[in-house]
Write a structure and sequence with these properties.
Layout lengths: L2 E7 L2 H10 L5 E8 L9 E2 L8 H11 L3 E4 L2 H5 L2 H7 L4 E2 L3 H8 L1 H11 L6 E4 L2 H11 L3 E5 L8 E4 L2 H13 L10 E5 L5 E3 L2 E3 L4 E3 L4 E2 L2 E3 L3 E4 L4 E4 L6 H21 L6 E10 L2 E8 L6 H5 L7 H9 L14 E8 L23 E5 L2 E3 L5 E3 L3 E9 L2 H12 L25
Helix pairs in contact: 2-4, 5-6, 6-9, 7-8
Length: about 425
């Protein structure tokens, strides 16, 4: 029996999800809202549907007779779209609004971690900018200033000096650069060490861990410049010790799932903590209530199991019945972005060189749409992500950059050092 799917979202993550779903013999129809030029290859795009409008999404699901809804981005989850669908009997891969608060409110996440004994950096939450600034002046040193709400992965300022922290508080709380998300901020102890993402499928009881991956947030090589939604990713991190990986899975992810369940916030979907490996051991930077983007693009090519079967099992609370298997291959994903991103940028520029997918290489489209003549054009900040698989990270990296150099659009920008932080690799591409 086939399953019809309504996929919410329109980024590279959703193209990767659609690509993987299309490999399932169980898939009936696939509708993506709003979708992009990538998801359109596998079904219908509902470009006019607001993914954050629960009533509209429920109406679309009823009209399309969708048997499963998969929510890609965090904003619809924070808006309670999964709750609206479940209330009408639609099975959903994605946590409830209450459970998604682990990402939509960093102060809530800190409280949950504290109560559950999950290691993280010390932090204080402020609604008043003067109080936040007084805290920084009192303690000095290095801080991280975070918007409490959702800011599309950009609401974090890593500050080397108290002056930088004061400026970040001013920008968020007084200048309103992150809108309502920055009306409340966390001023957090700055942690140091390599970072990794620890994704897992969970139905609120069972947990199936995914391979670890490493995102590159800053816009320029060498981790310089402002944070973005992510400029590239690789998997697995060769530097991560097995004992540390197991500690993250057991003492962070599984402990968080249990804590959410115990508080009446049953979690069904993908949960992933962003981790930093400090001199004192693993520490949580933040929790996310969905697949990372671009992490999904690097992880899903490694998934050997049927993604649709997994999503259905999660939605129905029977993940324990499904065997989730992964490839041993490495993957490297390089994001090609519009010139000026994460600031202002031009759209509507023609993209050349994308073509079809080669063996071991996928081009996942994000901010890209086709015009009436079928020409692929830029439509966002992060335009696409080139992902290559290989027997080694070095092989995957070389293949990815070969393909990146074949794609062009005016003002295209990409980092040349994705994956180069692994020992022994050349930083150039």
């Amino acid at each position: 029996m086939s399953t019809n799917v309504l996929l919410l979202g329109g980024g590279g993550r959703e193209h990767a999800i659609a690509w993987k779903l299309a490999q399932s013999p169980r898939l009936g129809s696939l509708s993506s809202a709003p979708g992009n030029a990538g998801t359109a290859q596998y079904g219908e795009n509902l470009a006019g549907l607001d993914e954050n409008d629960g009533a509209a999404v429920v109406a679309a699901a009823a009209r399309l007779r969708e048997a499963l809804a998969i929510v890609g981005p965090e904003a619809p989850l924070a808006a309670g779209v999964a709750d609206a669908l479940r209330a009408e009997g639609v099975p959903v891969f994605g946590p409830s609004q209450a459970a998604a608060k682990i990402e939509s409110s960093k102060s809530f996440a800190k409280e949950l971690m504290h109560d559950a004994g999950i290691e993280t950096g010390h932090a204080a939450t402020f609604d008043d900018p003067e109080a936040a600034m007084h805290y920084v002046r009192r303690f000095g040193g290095e801080h991280v200033v975070k918007a409490d709400g959702l800011a599309a992965g950009k609401g974090v300022a890593v500050c080397d000096t108290p002056g930088e922290a004061l400026a970040a508080i001013e920008a968020a709380m007084v200048g309103g650069v992150f809108g309502e998300a920055g009306a409340r901020v966390l001023v957090e102890q700055r942690l140091r060490g390599p970072e990794t993402s620890a994704h897992a499928f969970t139905d609120g009881t069972s947990v199936a861990h995914m391979p670890f991956s490493c995102d590159h947030k800053p816009v320029f090589d060498g981790d310089r410049g402002p944070n973005t939604g992510g400029m590239g990713v690789y998997s697995p991190p060769g530097w991560l010790a097995e004992e540390d990986a197991r500690a993250i899975e057991c003492e962070v992810t599984e402990r968080a799932v249990a804590a959410l369940s115990a508080s009446g916030r049953e979690y069904r979907g993908v949960l992933y903590p962003g981790m930093m490996m400090t001199a004192d051991g693993p520490r949580v930077i933040e929790f996310n209530c969905r697949f990372g983007d671009p992490e999904a693009e690097a992880l899903l090519p490694r998934l050997r199991s049927d993604l649709l079967e997994i999503c259905e099992a999660v939605a129905h609370g029977r993940l324990a019945d499904v065997k989730v298997e992964w490839s041993d291959e490495a993957t490297v994903g390089v994001v090609m972005a519009s010139g000026g991103y994460p600031g202002g940028y031009e759209t509507g520029l023609p993209i050349s060189g994308v073509g079809g997918s080669d063996y071991g290489v996928q081009v996942f489209l994000a901010g890209a749409q086709r015009d009436e003549a079928g020409v692929l054009r830029t439509a966002g900040g992060r335009v696409l992500c080139v992902v290559a698989s290989g027997a080694s990270l070095a092989e995957a990296r070389a293949t990815a950059y070969d393909r990146v150099r074949a794609i062009s659009f005016e003002g295209a920008h990409y980092r040349t050092d994705i994956g180069a932080r692994e020992g022994g690799m050349d930083g150039g591409a």
